Each structure stands twice: as C-alpha cells, then as structure tokens.
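Quick one: structure tokens for this chain, please?
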Amino acid sequence: MPIEHPDLTADTSDELCGDLGPGPALVISRLSYSYPDGRLALADISLAIDSGERVALVGPNGAGKSTLLWHLNGLLAPEGRVVVAGRPVIRANLPQVRRLVGLVFQDPDDQLFSPTVYEDVAFGPLHLGCREAEVHERVSDALGQVGLSGYENRLSHHLSAGEKKRVAIATVLAMRPLILALDEPSSGLDPRARRQLIELLQGLGLTMLCATHDLALAHELCQRTIIMDEGRVVADGPTWSLFVDAALLLRHGLEPVCQPDGVAGRQRRPVLRATRPTPGAGYRGGSRPGGRSSGVSISATTPGSGTGRRKTRSACWRKSRLGPPASSRSSRLARRSAGKRVG
C-alpha cells in the first residue's frame, strides 16, 4: 500500500491531540433532529460530559441513542448546538472535530473495508496527511492498545467478531481522539470477547460515550448513565442509583439488573442453588425411614443474606418407579376402606 504523501499543511500538532484540560469535553444544547420522513428522532436534548468521564447511553430501540452519537462529529446536521472541546460542530470545524471524536459503529464490517488490518488502521492517519514514519508509529501504537500487535498483515474479513471489534477501535485510536463514541460495543460478542472489550475500554483513559443495551457492561464501565426514550432524556445520574430503580428501568423498556454487594439500596434477586440431598428425604419433601433421595435439592437464597434467610423450595424429585412412601399408601388405603364402610 502506498503511504507516501507530500508535505501537507494540515495541522498535525499536539494542539488537538493533547488533554482537554478543565471544562466539559462535550456540550449539547437543545439538540433536536427529525428524519426526512418527518419522524422526530431527538427532542430538545441538553447535556454536558466532563473530560475523562465515561457515560452510558441506554434506552429501548428507537430511543435516539445512535442518532445522538452521529451528531458528535457532524454526520447529521442538527437543530441546536453541539460543542466538542470548545469547538462548535459546524461545517468549517468538521476536520478538527472528526479528529477529536472517534466513532465506533455497531457492526465492525461497516468500518473495515481494506484488505489487511494494517491498511484499515492506517486509513485515518493517511488522510490526515501524516508522513510515513508517523503512520507506522500510529498503527503500531493503536494495535498495541487493543492487544493485536502482529496482526498487521492479517485479512480483516477473516478475523473473529471480537477481533474485528478491536480492529475497529484501533482504526479510531490511530486518529488519537479525545472522545470515544461507541455504538453497541458488546453486540455479537461471546463472553470472553466481551470481557476483553470491557478491560480494553477501562484502560484507555478517554472521555467516552457508550450507547448500549448491555446494562451489566454499562454498570461496570461507566460511572454515569443517561436513559433515553422517544428521543428525550428521561433520567441522568450515577449508574448505580439509576440501576437500582427497577420501576424506572421497566417503564423505559430496560430489564433491571442485580447489583453487586456493597451498593446501597440495591435490589436483591433470588439465586437458585443445587445442593446434595439429605439421607432419608422422601417423596415431595416427606421422610422415609432408611430411605434415600434420588433427586436434587433446590434452594433459593438471597445474595449476601446468610444462612439465616435461606428459603428452601421443593425438597427433591424422586424417580417415579420408587412410588410414594409406605405411610402415604397406608393412609390412602385407610381412607378408601372408610369410604366403603360409610356407603
């Protein structure tokens, strides 16, 4: 791939690549947007995100999360005002703003289009006018940050879903942004790839806005959460305080999640545990002298509640061939005989 460029006059100084410093990294004021068919996607959105803050954007499908992200680097023209690191998102500022805001799409195949990983990651720096040595340096640094050093010559379309997601993030990191906007980052990932992604994002140290349906990821990754519904912000606050409000989550199409120990006011959900059956346990919880249970004892406990609050449900299941205990058969025969005598 040719990567030689003339000496361009584009600003590649550290002015845009340094820290944001004090003040908000992102300010959105009275942002509204309607699709060409007239449907309202965003309605009077106002919020601010500080430098270094990681914020989750959650809500049901159609709430406007992705549409909001697309406004951050000028992909859509809004009604309202969006300011990134003190620069209004207007046509004259788009080259600078798009270097400051790295947008990672939900589907990495929408972001990876070159034959090799190196060419995909180098695409952004090349179009910034970086010299060859700097392009090599940025590609190497970005792939190292996502744990894919040595993947330069791999074919992008032969990678796993988790690897593609990390390469997509690397294409953005090669631009050295100050704000990372992620659209459903855990979509389509298996548990191992999801865990690797969370650890990767936690270690980047960037200002982050993450649109997701994965509330467990949001709880672990983001200190603050914004809930959207029907194009509006309906709640904004610390993640743990919103996630313990089950009524709020259900009202806006979200499933409550169980909070970890130590969160004040957390809601507890029973956890089923299988235990070994006790000798002599009988049919449907009865006892049978000298008998043995052939089933599994199931109990429901509240996390962190201790043994004093254990609530045992069914005692066991037995094999049908054993039949009910002898005491139960005797009682049934006695009632049947009594009924015949009365007749």
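The longest strand covers residues 24-34.
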